[in-house]
Structure formats: C-alpha cells, structure tokens
Amino acid sequence: MKNRLILVVAMSLVMADATIAGDYFNGKKVYAMNCVSCHGSNGRSMDPSVPSFADGDALFRPDQDLYEQVRSGSGTMPAFRGVLSDAEIRDVITYIRSL
C-alpha cells in the first residue's frame, strides 16, 4: 500500500509539471502581436535559425521549458519577462502546440 501511495504522488508531480493550461484564443492574439514576425503567421519560420512550430520544432519540450525560454529569451529571441504576463506566455504555448 505504501509503494502504491508513493507511485501516485510521484505521478501527480510529473503530471503537474507536464502541462501548463492556457487560453488558445488569447494565445493566438498574443502570438500575432509578438511572435509572428519571426515564427510566421502559421508557425512556419522563413529563417532556418528560428524554430518552425508547424514542423514541431522545439515543441517536444515540456511546457515549463518553453515557458522559461519565452520569459528569459534565447539566442536572437528577446526575453518577454515584463512584456507578457505569465498567463499570456501560457496562452501562447497552448496556441503554438496547435500549429
């Protein structure tokens, strides 16, 4: 019984970190205002150094990793901390996962 409880708690922690729920429609709007110039309107970047979400680039990473990358920036991508709220970042992640 104790092993089963430990397994349930461990799975809960893994599942809690796996997904960050967001608003698809707001994510689409925020993406159009902040991301489309580099990542493309359909998630397909014309610059090979920029991830194309329509091809699945970078989308095999956990939501938390993507969240931190958007907040902190990476390479040529600027940091959006202070530009986008935490909820807006989650919304964008939800939207790009649909591309």
Could you walk me through the main structural features you see in this protein, from its secondary elements to its overall organization?
It is a single chain. With 99 residues, the chain is mainly alpha-helical. It has a single domain, classed as Cytochrome Bc1 Complex, Chain D, domain 2, CATH 1.10.760.10. 54% of the residues lie in helices and 0% in strands.
Task: Give the SSE layout.
Layout lengths: L1 H17 L5 H11 L1 H4 L23 H10 L13 H11 L3
Tag the structure with descriptive keywords.
about 100 residues; Cytochrome Bc1 Complex, Chain D, domain 2; mainly alpha; globular
General form:
globular
In percent terms, what proportion of residues is strand?
under 5%
* Average pLDDT metric: 85
Could you give the distance between the termini? 43 Å
Number of domains: 1
Query: Count of helices?
Result: 5
Query: Care to count the β-strands?
Result: 0
* CATH first level: Mainly Alpha
In short:
This protein has about 100 residues and is mostly helical.
